[in-house]
Amino acid sequence: MDKFREMQSFAAVVDVGSFVGAAHVLDTSKAAVSRHVADLEERLGVRLLNRTTRKLSLTDDGQTFYQHCSEILEALNQAEGELSSRSAEASGLVRVSAPFTFGVLHLATLWGLFLSQHPKVTLDVSLSDRAVDLVEEGYDLAIRISRFPHPTLIGRKLASTGMVLCASPTYLRKRGTPQHPQDLVKHDVISYTYWSSRDEWQFDGPEGAVSVKTTPRIHTNSGDTCRAAALLHQGIILQPSFLVGDDLRSGNLVEIMPAYASAELGIYAVYTSRKQLPLKLRHLIDFLGESFHRPAWTR
After folding, report:
1. I need a labelling partner for 252 at 20 to 30 A (CA). Which of 9, 230, 236, 291 fits?
2. Taking the C-alpha atoms of 161, 131, 126 and 21 in order, what is their torsion angle to the nearest 10 degrees?
């Protein structure tokens, strides 16, 4: 058995945390990865991994060997990357997951630009506000909007977006403008289902942290639906600036209680590992980083 293949399989299992995930990263079968690791352990005469039904962990020998493997594979990856970036052209399929509204408003026009620069690359873009499992569902890259990237993933921050409390002028003339977060209890609100705190809205104001339990008239898993309801004077929304920025500039929506700030979220490109990053994926991540250097909603 090829020593490099054994080391590659072993390192992938440790990096991803499962044989199934390693098989996906290496584009091979779970049985092949298991065989490579077993052959490696037999050849070395030591156990490298503790296997249980729930998780994998490194033995002391495994930890030592993994450190050496990582250094060797990383050195080889860097050497190949330097050469390939000079002489090779990015090619192949990249599967991307992105939030629906952000994908429509701010990513849709970028894909064609990227492909025009890399004609041998193809894209499979899926829009969903659900946080997909990159390994299990076979995605190369996901765009996530959150306070922090997932701890098991590598994240490159592309931009920031603030959560803005706002409503239409017509609604505010009719119902009055809240002056304090607790005033929201008496107002109609439209709530976004995937917001981490659900109906408990949190703010940071002059007196410190403030939390208020709202009673929404509408629950929805669509930021676009929240925005549409607010524009039709149905209530108050808490939505990201990348969605409502144009409405605030035009006056169709008005920011409420600017002294009470809500969350500042990062927009991240996340992927499973820095090691053996394909050229096509490296170029796409760099392209997105450059594209959001000055986001449209902050201009």
Report:
1. 291
2. 130
Q: What is the DSSP string of 162-219?
A: EEEEEE-HHHHHHH---SSGGGGGGS-EEEETT-TTTTEEEEEETTEEEEEE---SEE
Asked if 247 and 119 sit in the same domain, the reply is no
- Using DSSP's 3-state secondary structure scheme, residue 288 falls into helix
The pair phi, psi for residue 166, each rounded to 5°, is: -155, 165
Count of CB atoms within 10 A of residue 238's CB?
24
Residue 221: CA atoms inside 13 Å, Cβ hemisphere, count? 7
* CATH number of the domain bearing residue 71: 1.10.10.10
Q: Tell me 254's DSSP state.
A: E
3-state secondary structure of 261: strand
Domain with 137, as residue range(s), is 92-159+266-298
What does the pLDDT look like over 151-198, one tens digit per residue?
Answer: 777 888 999 999 999 999 999 999 999 999 999 999 999 999 877 667
The number of beta carbons lying within 10 Å of the beta carbon of residue 27 is 6
CA atoms within 13 A of residue 38's CA, in its CB half-sphere = 8
Burial label for 218, CB within 10 Å (0-12, 13-18, 19+), is middle
pLDDT band for position 288 (50/70/90)? very high
Query: How many domains does the chain divide into?
Result: 3
What are 202's two structure tokens?
């949190």
Q: What angle do CA 81, 95, 283 make, to 5 degrees?
A: 30
Does residue 101 sit in the same domain as residue 174? no
Strands 92-98 and 141-146: parallel
Residue 255: Cβ within 10 Å count? 12
